[in-house]
Amino acid sequence: MLYFIPHVLLSIIQTIRHSQKRDKVKVFLILVIITFLSAIALTSMESRHFGNFIIAFMILVCWVDLNNEEHKADLLRVRLAFYSSLFIGYIAWGILKFL
């Protein structure tokens, strides 16, 4: 799942950035993911509930065109930002845990 999240984020960024390429299905999938995952996060953080929306995640992952060099560079930046934020979060959690 950690591998696919940057792809989904890139798909959301591309949808926001390129308004002429917005597709109704893509916008619907993004809204489904954001709405339902936030509803699950607010009610219960059990991982069995997240599996119901994995199909929407996979469709958005496949939607990213990696044949384009610009998209590859964007994906690299999104991955760098995502994994850096995870690393910083884990380091901060570890420091706060041992204080």
Structure description:
With 99 residues, this protein is mostly helical. It has one domain. It is 77% helix and 0% strand. It contains five helices and no strands. α1 crosses α4 and α1 crosses α5. The radius of gyration is 15 Å and the shape is globular.
Count of the domains:
1
Runs in which pLDDT lies below 50 for 5 or more consecutive residues are: none
The percent range for helix content is over 70%
Largest sheet: none
- What is the typical, i.e. mean, pLDDT? 86
Following the backbone from N to C, one meets helices and strands in this order, namely: HHHHH
Provide a brief overview of the structure.
With 99 residues, this protein is mainly α. The chain has one domain. It has 5 helices and no strands.
Write the layout of secondary structure elements.
Layout: H1 5-17, H2 24-43, H3 47-50, H4 54-63, H5 69-97
Please tag this protein with its features.
5 helices; mainly alpha; 99 residues
